[in-house]
Amino acid sequence: MFKPVSIFIGLRYFFSGNRSNLLVSFISLLAIAGLVLGVALLVIVLSVMNGFDRELRNNILSVVPHVQLIHQVGVDNWQSEQQVISQLKQVTEATPYNEVKGLLNRRQIARPIQLLGLSSEFLPAGLGSVLDNYHLSVPTVGQLLLSEVLAEFLNVEVNQSVSVIIPSGSEGSTTVHPFTVSGIFATHTELDQSLAIASLEQVAQIAGTPGQVLGFRLQVEDQFNARNIGFDVIKQLPFGYGFRDWFQTHGNLYQAIQLSRNLVGLLIFLIVAIAAFNVISMLMMSVMNKRKDIAILQTLGLSQGSIVRLFLMQGSMIGFFGISIGVILGIVGCYWIADLIGWLESLLGMTFLDTSIYPIDYIPVDLRWGDVTTIATVALVLNVLATIYPALRASRTVPAEELRYE
After folding, report:
1. How deeply is 189 buried, as exposed, middle or buried, from its count of CB atoms within 10 A (0-12, 13-18, 19+)?
2. pLDDT one-digit tens code per residue, 270-290
3. Looking at residue 258, what is its pLDDT?
4. What is the rounded CA–CA span in Å between residue 394 and residue 310?
5. 135 with 174: CB under 8 angstroms?
6. pTM above 0.85, yes or no
7. Using an 8 Å Cβ cutoff, are 102 and 115 in contact?
8. CA 97 to chain centroid
9. DSSP class of residue 60?
10. Backbone angles phi and psi of 355, in degrees to 5
11. What's the Cα-to-Cα distance from 235 to each of 220, 232, 248, rounded to whole Å?
12. By C-alpha distance, which of 184, 207, 206 is closest to 195?
């Protein structure tokens, strides 16, 4: 089959290597290895960052209210106000809640908690899904659901007793409320550090507002417009309501994920760029080593354009192979990284992702083919750009000077 001579020679240079100059061969391997490592890391890191972003939207924001309505003194006729809120088009869910902060105590071991009172009739879908996974429901009066983190910290099991200590109105005084642990659950998010669930009515009694609710937990259609929706909602309600949106409670997490994604992506992209420009060094040395070959080809009639295409082909093949292997390793790494982290945790006896520090306790991966295509395309373009100067330099070889003494 016919092949343009420049492409044929370029492919031969690539596949045969440079046996006469080990340094050129070494730099060529180094350029390929740099591209493989950079592309693979970029695919894996961006997939993990995409995973954190997805988990924030789908997991954390499913158990955290997008908008939390808080009344100054508590709501008596909350059913009618819940109906008003539920009729708003932008609101997908409105559930009543009560909440107090206190200390969970057992055998002189105490830990701060957020005691959340929920209604079995109006259970938030996100938390309801979590409880369903553990075959649990909203506890009755005198019972308590604990997160796994709290249960492990207090060394407590189901059907054992704990007490919740709540500050009372007078300075320095507290009230103690006994509970029996009826179930243990895990959201696998930072909420597990402090979340305990009791009945709506009992938390109202503890808060000193029997028959009332503190406010409503809202889920909305557009999570990123939660603040404006919050303002729209309180305009439809009687005076006394305030609100906070998820961006006030977890916005720093979202911003940190986006910032980390961009910064880490930039750093690894620079690795890819450096590896691509290693091709310049390799091709320049190849040009210097093959000046006589280039001169002979020119005397045989090979044009300057063909010389340029010859070295463009050689450099592009390095980029193609390095990037292809890097993409394959990156995709394989995405599927195995969670198992690898789990194996390292069991081997070293440590936890890499602790919910006291990180928002979730596992490595999420969201491999997006658009990102993979973009990474491969940009890396290949950089590689081709890096071959242009050496290729032009090779085309300017003067045969008479190179073959003068031959």
Report:
1. buried
2. 877 777 777 777 777 766 666
3. 75
4. 9
5. no
6. no
7. yes
8. 30
9. I
10. -70, -10
11. 16, 5, 20
12. 184
